[in-house]
């Protein structure tokens, strides 16, 4: 029940306006990302620092307007190849994670 309550609190903390350009979910003790997050198609900046996220879902590729993704200080082991489809991404902060390798396609991000 506590996990369900924390997931509901997280959903309630997301902006009401689905056109929000900036979302900060830092230090929320997240292990996974709420699926509702991927409904913010205009988002340009997503900060997920200081959580316990082990992997980013393939749905991250749906955030086509994303310019900055901050996922430092998590437990990320590898990135989904879909991150390489984020054409507008200019900043990807992966510091203090447990990355073993990057997708070979990462070189396509310009």
Quick summary of this structure?
The chain is low in regular secondary structure and 110 residues long. It has one helix at residues 2-13, and strands at 22-24, 45-47, 68-70, 91-93. Helices cover 11% and strands 11% of the residues.
List the helices and strands and how they pair.
Elements: H1 2-13, E1 22-24, E2 45-47, E3 68-70, E4 91-93
Parallel strand pairs: 1-2, 2-3, 3-4
List the keywords.
single chain; 110 residues; little secondary structure; 1 helix; 11% strand
Tell me the distance between the termini. Answer: 44 Å
Cα-based radius of gyration, to the nearest Å: 13 Å
Major beta sheet summary: 4 strands, parallel
Question: What is the strand tally?
Answer: 4
Helix content: 10-25%
Ranges where pLDDT stays below 50 over 5 or more residues in a row are none
Summing up helix and strand content along with how strands pair, one would put the structural category as little secondary structure
Round the mean pLDDT to the nearest integer and report it. 89
Tell me the strand percentage band.
5-15%
How would you sum up the global shape?
A: globular
User: Helix and strand string, N-terminal first?
Assistant: HEEEE
Specify the number of helices.
1
* Order of the strands making up the biggest sheet: 1-2-3-4
């Amino acid at each position: 029940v506590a996990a369900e309550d924390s997931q509901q609190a997280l959903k309630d903390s997301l902006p009401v306006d689905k056109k929000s350009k900036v979302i900060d979910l830092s230090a929320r003790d997240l292990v996974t990302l709420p699926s509702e997050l991927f409904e913010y198609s205009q988002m340009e900046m997503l900060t997920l620092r200081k959580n316990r996220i082990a992997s980013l879902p393939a749905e991250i590729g749906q955030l086509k307007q994303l310019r900055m993704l901050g996922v430092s200080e998590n437990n990320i082991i590898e990135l989904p190849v879909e991150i390489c489809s984020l054409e507008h991404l200019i900043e990807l902060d992966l510091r203090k994670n447990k990355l073993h390798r990057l997708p070979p396609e990462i070189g396509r991000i310009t």
